[in-house]
UniProtKB/TrEMBL annotation:
PANTHER family: DIOXYGENASE, PUTATIVE (AFU_ORTHOLOGUE AFUA_2G02910)-RELATED, PROTOCATECHUATE 3,4-DIOXYGENASE ALPHA CHAIN. Residues 28-203 form the Intradiol ring-cleavage dioxygenases domain. Pfam families: Dioxygenase_C. CDD domains: 3_4-PCD. Its EC number is 1.13.11.3. It is an enzyme of class 1 (oxidoreductase). Keywords: Dioxygenase, Oxidoreductase. One of its GO terms (molecular function) is protocatechuate 3,4-dioxygenase activity. It comes from the Bacteria. It comes from Allorhodopirellula heiligendammensis. Belongs to the intradiol ring-cleavage dioxygenase family. This is Protocatechuate 3,4-dioxygenase alpha chain. InterPro entries: 3_4-PCD, Intradiol_dOase_C, Intradiol_dOase_core, Intradiol_RC_Dioxygenase.
Length: 214
């Protein structure tokens, strides 16, 4: 069954044990920044003290990082990165040839550390498609205590070209594809056309799991 407001699915083991399905791993590229920006906060719309916002539809991305047992993962580091509204990434292999198109006001990368409830939040832009990747997406990486735990992507539920996207298909069957999608919904009463999306992330293993087996 679906978690209320989220995308995590339950799977049953035995008669009584019930756990969440782990979010599928998906490719990191392209393009994890080869040079991280000086401003690495969770607001990708405005860089530093600038008053000029990024081009694009503002999106509030929120969610929780959970174990398969449904427990929140605190002190986890979550990174996101994505291309700007003109489909240019914060990476020299992409941006060097597209300086005229690149949005200088889009941070392109952000980082957040979860609190006791495992929650995270970012303000970014609604993702856009580009040649070779027909499914709009936001890249995500989760780490804890120096251990990289998961790299995945968040895509838009119901987007008509998702099925043409090789990375989306690589998530697996329909049940697993559901785990890499979020509902992008208009923010009620927003005067500037903002969006919200909730994307819960379920980790298959955490550093605590490894310590318990040692």
């Amino acid at each position: 069954m679906l978690l209320a407001g989220g995308t995590a699915l339950f799977t049953t083991r035995g008669l009584f044990a019930e756990e969440l399905m782990a979010t599928p791993r998906l490719t990191e590229g392209p393009f994890y920044p080869d040079h991280l920006p000086l401003d690495r906060d969770n607001d990708l719309i405005v860089i530093g003290d600038s008053t000029t916002p990024a081009v694009g539809e503002i999106t509030h991305l929120t969610g929780r990082i959970l174990t398969k047992a449904g427990s929140p993962v605190r002190n986890a580091s979550i990174e996101i990165w994505q291309c700007d509204a003109n489909a240019v990434y914060l990476h020299s292999r992409d941006s060097n040839g597209k300086k005229q198109q690149q949005d200088p006001n889009f941070q392109g990368y952000g980082k957040f550390e979860t609190a006791a409830d495992g929650g995270y939040r970012f303000r970014t832009i609604k993702p856009v498609p580009y040649p070779g990747r027909p499914a709009p997406h936001i890249h995500i990486k989760v780490s804890q205590n120096g251990h990289e735990l998961l790299t995945t992507q968040c895509m838009m539920r119901g987007y008509e070209k998702n099925s043409r996207d090789g990375v989306f298909r690589a998530a697996g069957d329909k049940a697993r594809q559901e785990l890499v999608m979020a509902d992008f919904k208009p923010v009620p009463d927003s005067k500037i056309g903002e969006w919200s999306a909730n994307f819960d992330i379920v980790l298959g293993r955490t550093p605590d799991d490894r310590q318990m087996k040692q």
